[in-house]
TrEMBL record:
Belongs to the protein kinase superfamily. Ser/Thr protein kinase family. Its EC number is 2.7.11.1. It is found in: Cell membrane. Pfam families: PK_Tyr_Ser-Thr, TPR_BSK1_C. The lineage of its organism: Eukaryota, Viridiplantae, Streptophyta, Embryophyta, Tracheophyta. It is an enzyme of class 2 (transferase). This is non-specific serine/threonine protein kinase.
Length: 484
């Protein structure tokens, strides 16, 4: 074992915890211009409904799915920016003004160590937050539920440092309070770097609860007063250090008993054997112990955590995605014939593929038939679809648009394929914005349909939006690979 309990000293509990923190060189991560994030924006419910394909169950990314009190969805704005949308339950945030003030304040923060807040929505009873979407799962998933390999020691140290830097940045910006800091609040971005979710910087709701129901992990002063303080956040950081050290979610009281008894073999993750020295193990345990002090004033502040964690870093030249075993961001899947046709803007080839596919992909989509299906209205609607199909087959795209529009406006049946066909018809008729709108609507109906993403890419290319088109193209290839 890399960390032998017999060599761990009682420095975990020594008087260093009361010494003033020394200045850390470059402790605060520098602001990066390349974050390229827009200013805080207030969205409408309809915009976010479209972005999340109607708040589709397939787009839920929160840990407990639809059972979570406040559900988080992944989504995509019209400009192809990926977002995470947190939708609060109806009883949360009854005071709209308070919600907006909180969101706007958190939305001023911009840092590479955060999953930054991009905007919000406050409309009627709806309260939604919009943040950067990070695709590579939570720290909880990588630590507790890993499938391929356990997280390496060097990466665990990097996680600890990045989180300390995130908290230091927030503290320096006047947002020292973070509610319910835990392994589910840490998310990995495209490059495999850990970032702290901005959602915890918001007050939860009018119920005032700032911690999950598991009282074993809450700071002792919170149990007494029900209030969160900056020192409470440091206590939660200590529980995260224990998670990183053990690979398990161990209650602090149990961990502290093990530390006091110097029974560190039960505390450290057996998967880490040989990856760290006794001194490194000792230092991390010491830091965790300082954070978990019963008296809040005896805990460190974020700056001193950064000072202590920075010298411990290993393999600093190795990118995070390598340490994590995550495919590099630029690694694209091979494109299918449809994807290639979109890149070439070969609209004739796209037409041939859609014509050959027919309506096969409507099976299982959210198609709807109303009770009017056997009425004359339904018959007329179906006839307009059939006429549109004939026009589409014979490349009479103006007639196809007209007939498909009658079918869509009839409202008795919803078909993603009709939207896809009208999208291509618009594209060939040099109406790229209308084509994009239809491609987005096709994805609202069928969130995991790759053709909708490919048509968005073609529509964006037609508008000269190369970067956004590449995002849509990559998403289409990923969805297609999952389907087949």
């Amino acid at each position: 074992m890399g960390c032998k309990c017999s060599k761990l000293s009682t420095c975990c509990w020594d008087s260093e915890q009361n010494n003033p923190a020394t200045e850390a060189p470059n402790a605060e991560p520098e602001e990066r211009n390349e974050l390229d994030l827009p200013a805080f924006h207030e969205y409408t419910v309809e915009q976010l409904r479209v972005a999340t394909s109607g708040f589709a169950a397939e787009n839920i990314v929160s840990e407990h799915g639809e059972k979570a009190p406040n559900v988080v969805y992944k989504g995509k704005l019209e400009n192809q920016r990926r977002i995470a949308v947190k939708r609060f339950n109806r009883s949360a945030w009854p005071d709209s003004r308070q919600f907006l003030e909180e969101a706007r304040a958190v939305g001023q923060l911009r840092n590479q160590r955060l999953a930054n807040l991009l905007g919000c929505c406050c409309e009627g009873d709806e309260r939604l937050l919009v943040a950067e979407y990070l695709p590579n799962d939570t720290l909880a998933k990588h630590l507790f539920h890993w499938e391929t390999q356990p997280m390496k020691w060097a990466m665990r140290l990097r996680v600890a440092l990045h989180l300390a830097q995130a908290l230091e940045y927030c503290t320096n910006k006047g947002r020292a309070l973070y509610h319910d800091l835990n392994a589910y609040r840490v998310i990995f971005d495209d490059d495999g770097n850990p970032r702290l979710s901005c959602f915890g910087l918001m007050k939860n709701s009018r119920d005032g609860k700032s911690y999950s129901t598991n009282l074993a992990f809450t700071p002792p002063e919170y149990l007494r007063t029900g209030r969160v303080t900056p020192e409470s956040v440091m206590y939660s950081f200590g529980t995260l250090l224990l998670d990183l050290l053990s690979g398990k979610h161990i209650p602090p009281s149990h961990a502290l008993d093990l530390i006091r008894d110097r029974n560190l073999q039960m505390l450290t993750d057996s998967c880490l054997e040989g990856q760290f020295s006794n001194d490194e193990g000792t230092e991390l345990v010491r830091l965790a112990s300082r954070c978990l002090q019963y008296e809040p004033r005896e805990r460190p502040n974020p700056k001193s955590l950064v000072t202590a964690l920075d010298p411990l870093q290993k393999d600093t030249e190795v990118p995070s995605h390598e340490l994590m075993g995550i495919p590099q961001n630029g690694a694209a899947l091979p494109l299918s014939p449809l994807g290639e046709a979109c890149v070439r803007m070969d609209l004739t080839a796209i037409h041939e593929i859609l014509e050959k596919l027919g309506y096969k992909d409507d099976e299982g989509a959210a198609t709807e038939l109303s009770f009017q299906m056997w009425t004359n209205q339904m018959q007329e609607t179906l006839n307009s679809k059939k006429k549109g199909d004939v026009a589409f087959r014979h490349k009479d795209f103006k007639a196809a648009i007209e007939c498909y529009t009658v079918f869509i406006e009839g409202g008795t049946m919803v078909s993603p394929t009709v939207y896809a066909r009208r999208s291509l018809s618009y594209l060939i008729s040099e109406m790229p914005q209308e084509a994009l709108n239809d491609a987005i609507q096709a994805q609202v109906i069928s969130p995991v349909w790759h053709i909708a993403s490919y048509l968005q890419a073609a529509s964006l290319l037609a508008q000269g939006k190369e970067n956004e088109a590449q995002v849509a193209l990559k998403e289409g290839s990923v969805l297609e690979s999952k389907k087949y």
